[in-house]
Structures are given as C-alpha cells and as structure tokens.
Design goal:
By secondary structure, this protein is mainly alpha-helical. About 70% of the residues lie in helices and about 0% in strands. It contains five helices and no strands. It has helices at about 15-40, 45-55, 65-80, 80-90, 100-115. The radius of gyration is 15 Å and the shape is elongated. The two termini are about 25 Å apart.
C-alpha cells in the first residue's frame, strides 16, 4: 500500500484526499517524472519529486510544504523551452514524445495543485 496507506483518512477532508491523489500519482509516475526532469538538467526539481514522496508519507502531511514542492516541479517543467526539447530529441535522449510528456506532466501537476488549494 506504500505511502497512501499511511495517511489517516478518518477525517478525509479535501486536503487529505488531495494528498492521497498526490501520493498515488507519485507512486505511479514519480520515477519517470524524475527522469524527465533530470533529462532537462532540472536536478532541484527532480530531487523535489523524491522529497514529495517523503512529505506525503508523514503521519500528518504538510499540505503547504507539498503545495510548494509541487509548485517548484511545475515551474521547472514550465521553464523547459521548445529549443531544449528539440535538442534532446535530436540527440535521441529522453522519451520519443518529449514535448507531450512535458505537457502531460505539467497538466497533471496543475490539477493536483488545484485540488490541494481548495
């Protein structure tokens, strides 16, 4: 059950449910997201993904901390230029649809952030 099982859902308010979604997303996509960020040399954001996993595992998750960390990851994705994506794709590094991956992860993280801020 991993990190999701450690969140107390007895008071399953909006922030607890949002954190559960973040934890689930990271369980499924965290490694790929870290690899994607590392391919753009966004080491701080890649490390932040690891930190997010730990933040979600806390007995009483720190919603503001999780929100800030997700914002840092989103900002790193938003700063990736089309030129950088093209250069990496031409070198054959990263996934085949690198531009779509950046857009998808950005949209998913934006959605998670909105859920946390309700």
């Amino acid at each position: 059950m991993g990190s999701i099982g450690r969140i107390d859902r007895s008071c399953a308010g909006p922030s607890v449910l949002a954190i559960t979604r973040v934890a689930g997303f990271l369980a499924e996509e965290g490694d790929v997201l870290r690899d994607l960020l590392n391919s753009f040399d966004r080491k701080e954001a890649a490390n932040m993904v690891h930190d997010l996993v730990e933040l979600c595992r806390e007995e009483t998750p720190n919603t503001p901390g999780i929100t800030i960390a997700l914002g840092i990851v989103l900002e790193a994705l938003e700063q990736v230029s089309a030129e950088t994506i093209d250069q990496i794709a031409q070198r054959g590094q990263g996934p085949r649809d690198l531009d779509k991956a950046v857009l998808w992860y950005g949209a998913k993280i934006s959605d998670l952030l909105q859920r946390l801020q309700r």
